[in-house]
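Figure 6 in text form: structure in, sequence out.
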C-alpha cells in the first residue's frame, strides 16, 4: 500500500512538473541539411501574432543576414535563399511583435548544404525579403548575448552593475 501511494505521488509530481514548463510560441523542428541550389524551407507552428524572422550566416563569417517569414499559425514558414553545395550555415528563428522579441529558438542551429538532402524546399516564391550587413546585425548580436544568459530571475540588485549607472564609491570624509 505504501509503495502504491509512493508511485502515485511520484506520478502526480511528474505531471505537475510537466505542466509547469513553459511552452514556446514557436513549435519548430530544426533541419540539419538543406538541399543545394534550392530555396530552403523552414516550416513551423506559431501560437502568437508577430513577425517571423530567421537569421543566418555561413560558418566562419561575421555578417548575419535575415529573411522574413510568413506567420500563418500552424502553417507558418520561412524561405531561405539558395546555398551552394558544401556550405555550412548556422541559423535561429525569432518572433517579433513591434520592438519586442516574443519568442526565439532555444539555440543557434547548424545545417549542412548538400545535393543529397531530402529536406523540403520552396518552388514558387515571387519575393524574398533578405537583409544583410549593418542593418541586420543589431538583433543577432543581442541574441548572442541572450543565448549566453541563463533562464533565471535575479531579485534585488543585479550581481554586476550596469555600465550606464556604475556603483557609486563612497567618498572618504
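Output sequence:
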Amino acid at each position: 500500500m505504501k509503495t502504491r501511494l509512493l508511485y502515485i505521488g511520484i506520478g502526480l509530481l511528474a505531471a505537475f512538473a510537466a505542466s509547469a514548463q513553459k511552452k514556446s510560441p514557436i513549435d519548430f523542428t530544426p533541419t540539419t541539411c538543406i538541399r543545394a541550389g534550392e530555396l530552403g524551407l523552414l516550416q513551423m507552428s506559431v501560437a502568437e501574432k508577430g513577425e517571423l524572422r530567421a537569421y543566418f550566416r555561413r560558418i566562419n563569417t561575421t555578417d548575419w543576414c535575415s529573411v522574413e517569414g510568413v506567420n500563418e499559425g500552424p502553417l507558418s514558414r520561412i524561405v531561405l535563399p539558395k546555398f551552394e553545395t558544401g556550405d555550412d550555415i548556422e541559423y535561429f528563428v525569432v518572433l517579433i511583435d513591434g520592438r519586442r522579441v516574443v519568442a526565439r529558438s532555444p539555440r543557434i542551429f547548424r545545417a549542412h548544404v548538400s545535393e543529397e538532402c531530402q529536406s523540403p524546399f520552396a518552388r514558387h516564391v515571387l519575393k524574398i525579403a533578405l537583409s544583410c550587413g549593418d542593418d541586420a546585425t543589431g538583433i543577432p548580436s543581442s541574441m548572442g548575448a541572450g543565448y549566453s544568459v541563463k533562464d533565471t530571475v535575479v531579485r534585488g540588485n543585479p550581481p554586476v552593475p550596469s555600465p550606464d549607472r556604475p556603483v557609486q564609491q563612497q567618498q572618504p570624509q
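Caption detail: The longest strand covers residues 88-97.
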